[in-house]
Queue: 4 jobs
Job 1
Amino acid sequence: MDLSFLAIQALNGLSSASSLFITACGLTLVFGVTRIVNFAHGSLYMIGAYTAATLVPRLLEFSFGPVTFWAGILASAIVVGLIGVLIEVLLLRRIYGAPELFQLLATFGVVLVVQDVTILIFGPEDILGPRAPGLRAPVEILGRRFPSYELVLIAAGPVVLGLVWLLLRRTRFGVLVRAATQDREMIAALGVNQALLFTGTLFLGAFLAGLGGALQIPRVSAHAGMDLSIIAEAFVVTVVGGMGSVPGAFLAAILIGQLQAFGILIFPKSTLVVVFLLMAVVLAVRPYGFFGRPEAIGGTHAVGVASRERSPFATLAALAVIGVLAALPLIGDAYVLKVATEILIFALFAFSLQLLIGVGGLVSFGHAAFFGLGAYGSALAVKWLALPMETAIPAGLLLAALGAALIGAFVVRLSGIYLAMMTLAAAQIVFAVAFQWVDVTGGDNGIVGVWPSAWASGPITYYLFTLAITAAVILLLMRVIDAPFGYALRAARDSTARAEAIGLHIRRHRWLAFTISGAAAGLAGGIYAFSRGSVDPTLLGIPTSVDALTMLLIGGIQTVTGPLVGAGVLHVLRDQIMPLTSLWRLVLGLSIIAIVLVFPRGIVGTLRAWREERA
Amino acid sequence: MTLLSVQHLGKSFGGVAAARDVSFTLQRGEMLAIIGPNGAGKSTVFNMVGGQLRPDRGTVLLDGRNITAASPQMRFRLGVGRTFQVAQTFLSMSVAENVQMALVSRRRESGALWSPARSRCRDEAVTLLERVGMADAADHPCSALAYGDVKRVELAIALAGHPKLLLMDEPTAGMAARERADLMDLTASIADAEGIGVLFTEHDMDVVFGHAERVIVLVRGQTIATGSPEDIRQDPDVRRAYLGDEHALEKPKGMDSA
């Protein structure tokens, strides 16, 4: 390992830092002004790459030269900026006042829509972009060859930083953006045209995302999946830098770029882990990142479960539902039972999340981590320890509970959007471990041969086994929600100041909530592993976390039973619609957006409001 | 006997001294008001006594025990109850449940996982609500109450901790004149009956001169006067501090000098 090699690694780090900064800069600007964490920012980046990879070669056919190339890149970024405007006008404008969870979910709905639409427009194949005219020959640095395009990228980061700085300092628009970042209500009170300001900010943010994506085309081909990989990194950059801070994003991007470049030498397989560990460490020391500021009091607006008179028929209804479910094997065939088993598992998974979100107001965006830890814990126990199902499932539960206790210890200091980002990061760490530690976890292929014990192996018995466990645990959790512990969680959600003033130890309660919730999710994961016979990293991915959140959303976040209904509805819909169309993500994304906009109370919540109005 | 002793308290925010060398004492059963123009540092002093802010300098003693660095939770255990400038209650719960929550916490049962919360300490909560005149609303959702009633509920919550010291930050802000007098009469009678020391900040001079036994005047973070309401009213420094609002310190109409 000589000096020249280290220099090249450092340059590589700087060039990826530049790209990352350009993209993350847009995300942090948009957050600063609108207070929305735009999940779709990665999608805009992807559109930028696809547009440029399609547009630039055509332009180069007309007139070959560097000017055409760079004009094409700029044009692609402008197209993406306009798409950003469209998203602001059609969607974001309607959810500025909504709870953070709804904002995150709605923009994730856009992610799903864009994924399918991108494939519709650009096709399923990766698109390899042209190389930049005039920059094809590598340059020699300390005796090693280095792509000259990368040098241009290294310069692009500081140039964009400079231009954004000028824009923020020297223009009226910039003054308004900075003012809104500091105090949004004041801006409104001063009579500033907010609609224009927000739309303009979205254009700028989307433009930067598009630019970041378009600049990639000579390096990597445009492909589906680049949206989620960049958004995870961009989140880390904005959170580490401090949300809303452009210089913070720059500093964080450089740090992460270098960490990735040199981390690969030390831990060749765990670059993702290194990046997210950095975020965990920074947030543990500075809960608001390098240059971020705590939100003013009253900044969060958690919605959730409220006290209600318990209906005298509640117990009866619960027994009736369990009775009907227990009788299902009498009428359903093996396929129906398989679907029903999965619904029960996901109902438990969603319900465990409801303890955190609906009761505690803790928007966990990485709940898949615990589900996956339970599944992997069980599968690993089978593979490496040759344990039978009866002990492998508790082993998975234990692993998930330990993981939740560890992650919980980090995140209970945080609130609102920082907590959501941190849980997401934690889940990505777990995902990265499962994906990259091939020797133990089987990597991409996962682990197969996770079959239940003989007595439980038939579809009927496994269904009944699942029903017994999920029903028991859900009833148990309902008691916890009704007990002083559940009330204390709600108290901390409703008013932190009041909860502290009556002596409640908020962090301790929240930590225990994380552990309990993680254990329950892990149990669901373990049962799921045995129902399928295998596990793979998708169980730990962002889409699995979003599935659970969608179930809460469909059922109703303010209701205790909502997530159970939501799990059933989502699963049945997926089962019915998926075979009919290849555009399932489009349908799901539009549905999520529609629910956020039209039925924010979900099915159970809407039904209840309707019934109470009639009464 | 001295319940609360605040000595040489100081706090700065980025170069602005919000409180400088503030000292005072409070006796059991006494009602002590902190007044001063906007930005005088009333809330800062208040939050340092309540544990929401950590002072840069000085000490806070409760019953002779140093609580300067104690958390709000710790202060609750030691007998500090408080109400907030903007009332802080648990809006997702019923009125009684709000008080029950405080009672459950006092008994250190807030981590209990099994038996339902809504039946715990119910009778004691209703008794407390009776004292503040809110027993009829025990089962109403807290979110449906008028603001004056929320303030009463907050008082009941604070009393649930069996406080020795009650901190009330602008207890009557946002209330109608009639409600203000009622709430403060109620507070005074409870404080008197149970020997609770009450420290409150207030903008309404009727409330201050009608209910405080002693008054501290803060201006730009410093104490400029301490004394009985009558002394304060006569104090030339205080009059100067309230210049431009000369009538602020005049006797409320229809009240004779006590």
Job 2
Amino acid sequence: MNNYQLGLIMNSCISVIGVVGVFIITSLAGMFSLGQAAFMTISAYFTFILAKTLGLPILLTAVMGIAASALCAYIIAVPTLKLRKDYFALITMGFGEMMSSIVIMLEKYTNGSIGYSRIPKVKPVFWIIIGLTAFVIFFAWSLKRSRFGRMCIALKTDETAAKSFGVDVYRLKIRIFVIGSCISALAGILYGLKNRVITPDGFSWNLSAEMQIFLFFGGTNSLTGAAIAGFMLKLIPETLRTVKLFGVSLQEFRTVIYCILILLVINFRPNGMLGEKEFSIRTLAGLFRRKEARNGK
Amino acid sequence: MENSRLVLRCNDICMDFGGVKAVDHFSMAVSPSTTTGLIGPNGAGKTTIFNVFSRIYRQTSGSLELDGVNVDNRGQVEVARMGLTRTFQNIRLFSGLSVLDNVKVSLDHSAGYNMLDAVLHLPSRQREERRIGQRALDTLKLLKLDQYAQSHATSLPYGLQRRVEIARALVTEPKVLLLDEPAAGLNPEEVFQLVDFLKQIRELYPQLALLVIEHRMDLIMSLCDCLYVQNFGRTIAQGKPAQVQCDPVVLAAYLGEE
């Protein structure tokens, strides 16, 4: 594989990590966050500026960057999660916009909208990204299948009922939001490591919305669907770069293509491509059996 | 009856909604091992009383004690963990989960492992998961629902969903169980099964204090030791079912003046 193809895979993996972060927040606990890119911004800028100015190893500053994102997520969550769901979406969206503006305002440190590019080279970045993607998926899968996952799905369906069975809804939501934001933060750092430059535009509202779209496309309650959608929907527009329509690269129509896809999904599969299905040996066996039964007819 | 034996007790509870008195000076004392019925016409404030008991609402005035502890300032979660569980008038099962997982949710707050254990699959996670899984399954077996354990909770017939909801509330072995119109929406056959089911529960959980809101008099009469009749937020009669049944005030409220 050449560098370009490796780059595509890395981009898609970073997208998967971002989508899994959103999955934890939106699919598990039902909090519709439209500002996850903000946590990517915080961690990425924090990590790389600290690494440069203080000369600390990137591993250490990355941990600090994620911690900074977690702290911000906590501060946002404590008052906001007392509000109704729709206000939560509005406030996270506002927070996302706020972060982009702050980055531009702090031009002295962040280099404003030109982008911060003094990012050290890390090797082997490809395997780091692949490894962390696998880890994050495993993390989310474990969380979903634990008591926390069950309580989250319960509170997502019916908060009052969940409370009546001893689920501390407010506290659990805060924890889930912080964890999901940490994963987004990780995606932000990896994005910086891969591209060697971070700009406020790269972490704009578009990215937050894009991650929600991917998640929705993959399946409202399916980690498998979220991961596959995060990977494929990032990859496909890139491969369309060379395809031209009316003399313009199809990639320029990315947003239009996403919109069409979403409309199709809403119409024909309102729960996303995979709905609530998860990949497992049992599902595979089930598929196989069904095929056999059909052939038997 | 001495005070210490009371598992639930409320004194002069009032609940106003902007001038409308939904509950007006309601008092009640419930001891363990009893079944108490709460009846009355629509809008009499029965569900509001349950919502105050389970702390979905905070009462405007009056005090509430659960197992000898004042719970006026406790929230829904705390009261649930202290041993007061309930079902809802319109079934509120968790639709994304299987029957077994629905029951497990009740136990989840008490499972002794944290997020780190969960994510790293440490032994404490496996042990606790096995424990609550077993306990949930035992309860389902006891209530003869184990054959549906893996089904999607909301895909079951209505009567079964009702029973799963009761199982979910019973798995923690609560002190008080509030049943809000358990027979609502059931056909006569299912009501019949429900009465049997509740009688079984009475035997299986001898210590449990059961509170039932119901419209079906046959169900109330065959189950309850004691009845409270509500009308427009006030208690108009209380006592043994047979006694209440002949009370002229109750008849007037239920059937209209003759």
Job 3
Amino acid sequence: MDTQAVVFERASAMPAPTWHFLKMNDTSIEVPENLAIDPRVSVSMPCSARGAEDEFEKALADAQEAWEDDHPELSDEERAELEAYRAAEADATYGGTAQSAYQMGADAIEESRSLAVAFEHGVGEEAAAYLRYAAGRRIVVKADVGKMIDAQVIVEAAPETLSVAAIDVVADADSTVNLSIVVDSPESSETSAEGAVSGVAGSTVRVFADDRSTVRITRVQTLDESFSDIDDMGLFANSGARIEVSQTVLGAQSANTGLATDLRGSGARLEIDTRYLGRNAQKRDFNYSVRHHGQKTESDLKANGVLADSCEKTLRGTIDLIRGAKGAQGSENEMVLLVDEGVRNKTVPVILCNEDDVAGNHGATIGHIRSEQLFYLASRGLSQQVAERMFSMAIIEQAAIDAVDDDSRASVIRFGERVEPGFAALFDEGA
Amino acid sequence: MAERKRTQVDDIDRSMYDFRYDDQDSEKLDAGLTPDIVREISERKDEPEWMLEHRLHSLEVYNSIEMSDWGPSIDGLDMDNIVTYVKPPTEQKSDWESVPDNIKDTFDRLGIPQAERSYLAGVGAQYDSELVYHSMQETAAKMGIVYSGIEEALHGEYADLIQEKFMTLIPPTDHKFAALHGAVWSGGSFVYVPKGVKLDYPLQSYFRLNAKGAGQFEHTLIIVEDDADLHFIEGCSAPKYNVANLHAGAVELFVGKRAHLRYSTIENWSKNMYNLNTKRCRCDEEGQIEWISGSFGSHVGYLYPMSILAGRKAQASFTGITFAGRGQNLDTGCKIVLGAPDTSASVETKGISKDGGIQTFRSSVVATPAAEGSRCTVSCQSLMLDNKSRSDTIPAMDIRCKNVDIGHEATIGRIGDDKIFYLMSRGVSEEDARTMIVNGFAEPISKELPLEYAVEMNNLIKLEMEGAIG
């Protein structure tokens, strides 16, 4: 079956928007028409780890019950008190509390008391639903209590094809799941006319990490420039769970990365380590949303990238410290190295907070190689141009060094060789 | 278990601002917004034809664009109920004694004449839609400085200059309330500082909105020529009513080569006010703009002074504090455009929210392709004093140039127990420790204010600390 042309206009929207003139609030994700929906996905994991199709929904429903037990509804007396306070507010002020649309929306989600309603996808519900439809059968990785599972999913892109994997990970209490996702275009395909996308590849991942479990996801994307990539994740962490996500974005003409997390249980922790490279006229779009619901939850987002030629990148990172998340800590940090004049970098690191007993911080550093660094490199005989090239290639080299398995390392080396012939020799055995 | 007491910060004591006088002697136009009302405002002011056309064009723009969807709700503001023009029962005076008693008493109680005598080079006072008093020291006049009502200046020797500059930094198409301002603006000041002139004492304009259900739309236009220097202070307040009032002023600042302008504002509108003000500055080569901004009042605030660094080595600094208490949703911050080589900007803001108040820091830093060698640092800190309140930070950076250095950092949280513990280990009582920390939090901003305003700010915040942090 072929695709109709689809454009998701307000995909990867950040929860709290800002001025529209900046064109940073969201992005549009386009799937061209006439692509064959053909998921070229290979999966490697123990048969015992294959879960039922509705494993995720069941786990979330069970968590809902447990959460309701721990968080009873307001008593009639408390509700009356709340209503009276609100009525007084509406009376005493002009237009109520004048909450903005996103503030009211956030309150409505909390008042729904539904984990399913609060669960979000990084690229947005509409785009995620489309990816699930295109992926067809879902890959379900299930780790029983106390078990450790290693799983690998390879998504292969092909011209004129929409190739997507839909993956659910359900990690029971005290279990560990290591999931590696490789999105690659192994057959070297001709670069299409500028602006044209010959194929789309991607993945949509849902994670349910139960009490004290650990889920590690490593995603490496090394697509040729004629492809676009859609990387969607929606994560849920219960008490004491730990989710670590490592994303490496090296290729694709257009790469859209969206990740949303509900740190629901107390002591849940999320770590995100993103590295990216943008070259030529490529587009990179990242949207991260981390909702801290549980007490003493922690999140740490690190993003580092190099932008060269005339590429454009946007990163939206939101840490939401929700009332009740006492002792929560959220941190995000981005470093962007701008290598060429034509690049464009947009960053909007947001902290939303309606709980006082929390700590949130963010930082961003955007700029070129420092003059003292250039001077040092020049004193070693390296011109600025060579130095800039080194920084770009260092991202690829680091990805190859850090690769968690042979397949992802091979895809990174293949990609590096396409960017700079001779790169593969660095990793020849004995080199 | 005994109830733990929280850090307690009193509401701003507004009693000195909440007095009001009957406005039955004032002339009011009908509430709402129509071309006829716009024409009548223009006719009353005997304006040149181009200004009437500008107003009518702005009205068309106002009717054609939507209100923004990202900020605080303005559902409580019904433009059909807002009176856009209220003329007080007097003409503009330059002699304080000639001002009608109730208006004079208003500004006396706000301390304006005393401030003029103490440390100001000139004062303008606006009451509702019109300036009622304007004066400047003779020494400043002899230096060639012009400080007058903008409407008066529209008929004087600077009329062409005003036409050239008026609403060029803030075009009516900028946003809905810029368009509204363009249609119904009234009152405000015009300041012209000639080349090389440095004024040692500040000029101050004070805006008082007395009429119930009215809007105030003053326009401030300041031109600081090359190598000149000026400090301008803007104050504003209003009594509290049980209906919405609206402030949609505009401030346009032009800073010449190597010139310097410091623009200080203490905004203390009453809590029925929708403050939708727009401020913008353009700096030429090596020009400097310093914004000092304190936002304490209003029910809803949208305020983001913008610095356009258009000349090489131009500089901007923004120092701001926002204090949001019960019933307030204050969305404040700034915009920076690095539009030329080697420009630099620094932003330092503090936000405090308490008792259900909502405080948002919002900023944008845009480095254009021409900004080679430019740098900008943004630092914002927010302090939450209870868990009923809300504090959001939404900074955006759009960088289109390689050789720039852009840094941003933000922190949010409450008073750290470790800091209290440290001070207590040095013999400071817990209560005093907390007071010291909150005062220290605001201090980087208050030290930038003129002394009299720093004292006012301390009065405004008036912190009262008790009990343990809970």
Job 4
Amino acid sequence: MEKLLAINKLSVDFTLRESTLRAVNKVSLSLDRGERLGIVGESGAGKSVLGFSIINLISKPGRIAEGSVIFQGEEISAYSYEQMRRVRGDRISMIFQDPMMTLNPVLTIGEQMRESLKAHMEVSTAQANEICLEKLRKVYIPSPEKRLEQYPHEFSGGMRQRIIIAISLLTNPAMIIADEPTTALDVTIQAEIMELLLELCETEQMGLILITHDLAVVSQVTQRIAVMYAGTIVELGRTEDIITHPQHPYTIGLLGALPQRAGSSGRLNQIPGVMPGLARIPRGCPFKNRCSLAAEICATKPHLRKSSSGSEAACHMVGTEQSTAA
Amino acid sequence: MINFLRRLRSSDFSYYFFRDPIALVSFAVLLVLVVAAFSAPLIAPHNPYDPTTIDIMDSELPPAWAAEGSRNFLLGTDDMGRGMFSTMLYGMRISIIIGLGAVLLQAMIGIVVGLLSGYIKRLDSILMRIADVQLSFSTYMIAIFIGATFQMVFGVANYEKIAAPLLILIIGLAEWPQYARTVRASVLAERQKEYIEAARVIGLSKVRIMWRHILPNTLSPVLVISTVQVANAIMSEAALSFLGLGMPQNKPSLGSLITSGFEYIFSGSWWITIFPGILLVTLILVINLLGDWVRDYLNPKLYKG
Amino acid sequence: MLVRIRNLVKEFDITGGWLDQFRFSGGRIEREKTIVRAVNGVSIDIPEGRTVSVVGESGCGKSTLARTVMRLYPPEAGEVYYREQRIDNLSSKELKPFRTRMQMVFQDPYASLNPRMTLGKILREPVHFHQPKLAKGEVRDRVAAVMEQVGIDPDWQSRYPHELSGGQRQRISIARALTVEPEFIVADEPIAALDVSIQAQILNLMMDLQEEHKLTYLFISHDLSVVEHISNQVAVMYLGCLCELATAEELFSGPRHPYTQALLSAIPRLGKRAGHERLSGDVPSPISLPPGCVFHTRCRHARERCRREIPVLSEVEGGSRVACHGVEEGRI
């Protein structure tokens, strides 16, 4: 299958007063056409920064320090602002956590949709309306003609996120980056939105990068998962492999911490300590200070390599006896 | 203390402060002015309050560099023969004292009213309406009214003795609503937070929650408006003195100095008005610049007084 | 029963200032208020040493229920009993002895600690307040002991909350509740703002403390998988009303109320792509509650009776208590 997106050794630095912090450290990822990839990690793991850096939306003091992003054969990480503007919201769309941040409260939904459409396409207002209605129907907004004339505050949280998805579909993008799209929503609505995203990706053959902290959500929607910790990918592989046979001690810990995995009324598996801040990431393996398997070799940085389960893990201990014991 | 200084040096505050030339220069100028004002008895060559040292023959001397200037009086003398330099230093001291005093009074009234109306819903409407009524009278109207009454009741001679505290009272009473509104706004924001609920769950009394928990968290906006308010109070005092309702001529503030020179400006004695004027503008300017910097640093979304 | 909640009602007046309450209609000036019914006649029993969870989606009134039980809000109607003593009508002075027996842990670790107070001050304050005669050394010892219990180094007393991570702050928040040695703790979404691995740490800590101190929890959460793990009994709320009250095993193995069923089917499960039951429409506004069963506007089993008559909680076989006409009639 042809590669839709290839990220090669991408690093993002934030330059602060006296120091430079590396939020994303040499991340390499790829996405096939129509493939759904989940990026999972805790807050501060660098998953959102990675998402933003794909479409070159890193604002100062951050910048892409090295590496490249190749989308549909073009190196978009080298694009100028103007060139990038034509890619963003056209071939790549982005969905954020809080729909109210993306929608302008003083414009009707119709005005906003037409505006974003006209920014990328030469269409008449009548044609634009037609496209908007079609997309609203796709995300199951009831009576879209009436809804087009309403303001964002007249919609519920779930409806707003549907509208955001409809807007992101306007230009028939090849890929959607969704950053915690359902974190602000209730479970019942979350389930609906996820189902909708999944359905749209399948019918439209769209690539999806789903950035979230929720392993359960990711496991239902995506085909592959990248687990991020302190700016690096610690495990990458097919969703089933990672869920059923996690290899990296962090992934094992993360899955074990889920109440669904624990026996009833027993204690949860907890990872000791907290993820280090960007300024305090240890040399070598970033996870070594919290890892029960840490050994001397962990002072050197592990690289992703194939494990027995089929996924790639960045851990020296994977494949050794200790790790299977864990 | 050393620990505190060390922490201050490594803090964001000093980092941003030392990288902002405007803040640095403003602070330096303000420091020089304030130190000069409060050490006036030590550094001023003459004592303008001591009639025995004043010679009417020295009146209206131009600055030292002018042809008729005397080396005794660097910036010339006023119509009574007082050295402008010394009189301005003493005058600035009075202006700053009145400014600080008035702001202290405003802050005390404003913080109490703001806390009460922000935290106790029943009091909110009534206290805020009082504040609105207060704001709808201009400072000058109140000052003219009170000043004139006092001058009548106590006589002009006695009025001179109580002029400074009276001005503090007038300016303090006139502008407390700025504080009350600012404090109330941040109390309304703070009281929503869970640490207030936690304090209530412990069972703490309202007064204790207000003083120990809410008040300390509302002080940064108070600090910001205080700088602006000091400048405003000094301006108000100058304006009142200019109208003849402020400090008397024998204990002049910067404002009354400007007035007294105003009569002579057309007879060529420009220095009596211009020098105190420049000093006043400089003082106000550096305070406001510093205030702006503090506001930008704390960056709260607050009501700009 | 340690705590009994009976028909508790909490309303909020959202009209604003009294000037806004006057409306001009039909040539007359009328005073009208806009009332939100946040908690609508809820009854729950909380047995000693157990964990009772309240779940529901945002706006269902679960946090308001917790705060009303803690008397952060005075209830409009209903009763709250603590060890069979009625506490909902006590004055704040009469309530003071109960403040050492019931405590609360909050959701937002960034807002629940006073940013201007050191950890030591935050933890000493409740002790000083309730036992002013306690010697300084004793207070210090108790604070140190509590910090140790929640896994925070007692030497950190001079630190400020902003120096701590979210999980550590939540530990301090729990420690503050523990300093007065309570029996009953209301936890309002204590782990919602934390990362998964930290959530596990805090949940484990809460379970350890429960065993050690024989604590009783009223646990408020929107996260059903957490609730399933930690609670003995679960109450499901929708629009201020209680839909279902059952033991955790009963509820998660066989939910009876249609809303509970929809809620459970929506939990994302690892790896399993189970078709969830879709609810039609949105949650109605709590300003004008639908007549009859509050859920009827979204329920696919709704009949004429559901639109007229408010269902009451009644026991079904298995021991669950469900407020649904359909369940009562045996058609669900």
